[in-house]
């Protein structure tokens, strides 16, 4: 579906719109009935029979209106919901294609705001605002026409007051344009803060930073309420001034209608209606003015959606990527997340095919960044990365991800069953293959202890599981995917001893799968037998070699090893 098609309104929407407008127009018939009754009374032509017919007509119109309204409302709701569903699916697809480097905390708030609040606002336009605007607009024209039939000069004055909507609209659109955009940006920021607050609720509580003590969230919400107030406060005077001018037409029409009535040029009932109908028109135009104000605001949401849909996607390449062997090399690779703060500085090394290469180094030295670049989550600023002798710079990120599995510190799990979560690694895997993978990953035992075994739900992001259990499920996924390259972050330090042993056992099973493995090691004893160990420091590979070779060097690795030995002794 193209971006334009995402906004395409369906037949249900149009039917709903037409029926809602029709119902609104029928509501105007009440005034015609009142007019007829008053005229009858005044002329002395009223009879039980005529009153009976008129009341029957009112009842019949009411029933017809009720039916039309129910059908129209339901149809426009279903039609609107269908359009929102398409937009959300389209946005979801778009997010999948955006470069990961764009997913900063601030942008996440924006994306969530667009996918939820902005799409809801757009749905509001479809299901409520458009119908209300069209209905009130047509009713206003009919009222003016009716007044024109009663006394033409009054209609000219009212038409003029209706045209005042144009400058009023222009002014209020400017206000919405200025403050609405700001309000939207602040809303996105507040949403980002709220997401962070909910994600980090455990930590916030542990440090007594929950509720109003959380300064960032409180500040974002305060900013939101200030800008909301400013936005409304700027709109009120314009609306106020318009309404005053608009309502002034009521006494004005009374005055100018009185003269022809006095001279006998118009009927008394016509004069009565000349006094009454401008009030109806004033109410209608006030409603149009408020609706237009919020319609314009809701259109900002549409613009936000369109802007996201036109964001630059990760470039697609036609280059075929299917390397025969899976050694990995970095050639003078430089990279920074934040401009001017390089993490990798002209880093070069080679990872042999079918062997285990371990990466060690201080916290923050750039170990995970190396894995992120191999997985093409990010592109290097300069230098080149080869897999099997082919540069990955111009190939599609999905093609690179196809030949590797990543087991990192942040295991993401879906709110599904254990089986479904693991099957994502290989959608055609049989139940038996899933269970074999889980046995190798040391998770079969705990899965079977769960109430429904492999069919147990694991909660949102696996929150019904412990950290070690989540890591083992992620290892099971990697085993099931059976890709030639494995990127592994051995992060067992935060686990209890039982889980740590289980994860280490799962990792050692994984290492026997005869793949090209790049493993970040936080404990050196785990990687003593690695074919190569890279010691990362200051954005470069400071030392490299086997465990023995590095110990013989007597450098940084030796110091790290000695420190670890001292702790475990
Ligand atoms: N998404 C990001 N945006 C900005 N800076 C980042 C981002 N990810 C990492 N960094 C910074 O880049 C540097 C290297 O981070 P990296 O995660 O690669 O280190 P590491 O060696 O894996 O650390 P650890 O062993 O603690 O996991 C750090 O200074 C970190 O703060």
From TrEMBL:
Segment forming the signal sequence: none
Keyword match Metal-binding: no
Domain ABC transmembrane type-1: 16-266
Main location: membrane
Entry's localization field: Cell membrane
The organism's place on the tree of life at top rank: Bacteria
Phylogenetic lineage: Bacteria, Bacillati, Bacillota, Clostridia, Lachnospirales
Transmembrane segments: 12-38, 50-68, 138-166, 240-259, 271-295
GO cellular component, one term: plasma membrane
Species the sequence originates in: Stomatobaculum longum
Keywords: ATP-binding, Cell membrane, Membrane, Nucleotide-binding, Transmembrane, Transmembrane helix, Transport
UniProt keyword annotation of Transmembrane helix present: yes
Residues annotated as domain ABC transporter: 328-563
Entry-linked Pfam families: ABC_membrane, ABC_tran
Protein name from the UniProt record: ABC transporter ATP-binding protein
InterPro entries: AAA+_ATPase, ABC1_TM_dom, ABC1_TM_sf, ABC_transporter-like_ATP-bd, ABC_transporter-like_CS, P-loop_NTPase, Type_1_exporter
Gene3D superfamilies registered for this protein in UniProt: ABC transporter type 1, transmembrane domain, P-loop containing nucleotide triphosphate hydrolases
PROSITE patterns noted in UniProt: ABC_TM1F (PS50929), ABC_TRANSPORTER_1 (PS00211), ABC_TRANSPORTER_2 (PS50893)
Entry's Gene Ontology molecular function annotations: ABC-type transporter activity; ATP binding; ATP hydrolysis activity; ATPase-coupled lipid transmembrane transporter activity
Topology relative to the membrane: Multi-pass membrane protein
């Amino acid at each position: 579906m193209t971006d334009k098609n995402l906004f395409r309104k369906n037949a249900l929407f149009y039917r709903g719109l037409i029926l809602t407008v029709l119902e609104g127009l029928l509501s105007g018939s009440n005034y015609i009935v009142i007019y007829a009754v008053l005229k009858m009374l005044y002329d002395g032509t009223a009879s039980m029979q005529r009153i009976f017919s008129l009341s029957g007509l009112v009842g019949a119109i009411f029933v017809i209106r009720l039916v039309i309204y129910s059908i129209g409302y339901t149809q426009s709701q279903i039609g609107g919901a269908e359009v929102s569903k398409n937009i959300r699916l389209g946005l979801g697809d778009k997010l999948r294609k955006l470069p990961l480097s764009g997913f900063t905390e601030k942008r996440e708030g924006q994306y969530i705001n667009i996918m939820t609040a902005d799409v809801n606002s757009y749905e509001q336009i479809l299901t409520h605002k458009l119908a209300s605007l069209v209905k009130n607009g047509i009713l206003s024209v009919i009222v003016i026409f009716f007044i024109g039939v009663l006394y033409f000069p009054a209609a000219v004055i009212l038409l003029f007051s209706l045209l005042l909507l144009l400058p009023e609209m222009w002014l209020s659109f400017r206000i919405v344009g200025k403050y609405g955009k700001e309000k939207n940006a602040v809303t996105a920021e507040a949403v980002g803060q709220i997401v962070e607050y909910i994600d980090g609720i455990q930590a916030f509580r542990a440090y007594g930073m929950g509720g109003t003590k959380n300064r960032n969230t409180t500040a974002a919400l305060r900013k939101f309420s200030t800008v909301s107030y400013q936005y409304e406060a700027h709109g009120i005077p314009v609306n106020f001034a318009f309404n005053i001018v608009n309502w002034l037409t009521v006494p004005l029409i009374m005055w100018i209608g009185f003269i022809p009535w006095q001279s006998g040029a118009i009927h008394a009932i016509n004069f009565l209606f000349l006094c009454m109908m401008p009030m109806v028109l004033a109410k209608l135009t006030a409603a149009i003015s408020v609706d237009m104000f919020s319609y314009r605001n809701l259109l900002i949401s549409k613009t936000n959606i369109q802007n996201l849909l036109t964001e630059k996607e990760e470039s697609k390449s036609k280059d075929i990527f299917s390397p025969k062997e899976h050694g990995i090399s970095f050639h003078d690779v430089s990279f920074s997340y934040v401009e001017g703060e390089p993490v990798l500085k002209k880093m070069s090394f080679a990872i042999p095919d079918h062997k285990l290469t371990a990466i060690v180094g201080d916290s923050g030295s750039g170990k995970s960044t190396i894995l992120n670049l191999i997985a093409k989550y990010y592109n290097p600023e300069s230098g080149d990365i080869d897999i099997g002798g082919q540069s990955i710079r111009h190939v599609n990120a999905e093609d690179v991800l196809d030949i590797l599995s990543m087991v990192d510190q942040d295991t993401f799990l879906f709110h599904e069953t254990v089986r479904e979560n693991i099957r994502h690694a290989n959608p055609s895997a049989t139940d038996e293959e899933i269970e074999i993978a889980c046995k190798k990953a040391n998770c079969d035992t705990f899965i079977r202890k769960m109430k429904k075994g492999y069919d147990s739900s694991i909660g949102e992001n696996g929150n019904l599981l412990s950290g070690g259990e989540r890591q083992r499920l992620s290892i099971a996924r990697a085993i099931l995917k059976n890709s030639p390259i494995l990127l592994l972050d051995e992060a067992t330090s935060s686990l209890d001893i039982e889980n740590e042993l289980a994860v280490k056992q799962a990792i050692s099973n994984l290492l026997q799968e005869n793949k090209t493995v790049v493993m970040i090691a936080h404990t050196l004893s785990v990687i003593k037998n690695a074919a190569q160990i890279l010691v990362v420091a200051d954005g470069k590979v400071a030392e490299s070699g086997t465990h023995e070779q590095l110990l013989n060097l007597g450098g940084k690795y030796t110091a790290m090893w000695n420190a670890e030995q001292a702790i475990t002794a």
